[in-house]
Structure formats: structure tokens, C-alpha cells
Amino acid sequence: MPKGDVHKKKEVVQDVSLHDLDVANARPQGGQDIFSMMNQIAKPKKTEITEKLRMEINKVVSKYIDQGVAELVPGVLFVDEVHMLDLECFTYLNRALESTLSPIVIFATNRGMCTVRGADIVSPHGIPVDLLDRLLIIRTEPYSVEEMAQVIALRAK
């Protein structure tokens, strides 16, 4: 055991996503250090990430956050053409959004009233009403001719 004063102290900060943790734990191979984890990520092999594994990872991450060892930085999930998803996808997303580890989700669509795929339900934007009630809808309008001229003038400078 070394003795004496510490002359240099180094703090290591690394960004690790939940997916990185899932992949590293789905096929554990050897050491628990960062190099072993990075080696597993560098050589990806298709492995299913089970619900049990997801729950275990969530418990560990929650424990680290409570201890102050880790900090949660939510990501952003952007889903374009959201009206193309089926009822099963919406059910999964609705459940996933309830998690404390869920990302910020942005849905985009250009549809008004249309049928939800996988069901005979007509709903605004093709999104089931139970999920739609939890969303903030932001309407966008096309640029006017004057606004387009302003944008072009700014870009031309």
C-alpha cells in the first residue's frame, strides 16, 4: 500500500449512454474496467437486450445518480413521419416515456386526422388519443415571401 502525500489528483469524466451499458452487459466478456467496455462496444455483435437486463441497468444507474457518482443528461429522440408508427409502437413509446430515464421525444408529422395503423381508430396526426393527451402540439407555418427574402438576405451577408 503506498504511503505519503498525494501530489497529483486526476478526475476522469466519461459520457456513457444507456445503450452502451446495455450492450456491454448483454455480453459480458472479462474485466469491468472502461477498456473492456469500450472493446465490447468496438466489436458489436447482435445480442438481444432483455427486459430483465434493462431493469437491472436502470437500478444501477438510479443508484449511481442517488450516490452522486453519475449525472443523467437526457437525450433527444426525434421521430419523423410519426403517423407511420403502428399501435404497438405507440404503446411501447407511451410506456417508455413514463421512465425517469426517458429522453426528450419530438414527433413530427404533416397529417391531420388519419387512421392509427394497427387499429381502426381515426385520430389527430395518426397518434392514439391516450398518447396525444400527453403531448404539446406546436403548429408550424410555411415562410411567407417576405420572411424568405429576409432569410436569404441574412444568409447572403
From TrEMBL:
It is found in: Plastid, Chloroplast. Residues 1-144 form the TIP49 P-loop domain. It is an enzyme of class 3 (hydrolase). Its EC number is 3.6.4.12. GO terms for cellular component: chloroplast. It catalyses: ATP + H2O = ADP + phosphate + H(+). GO terms for molecular function: ATP binding; DNA helicase activity; hydrolase activity. Belongs to the RuvB family. This is RuvB-like helicase. It comes from Guillardia theta.
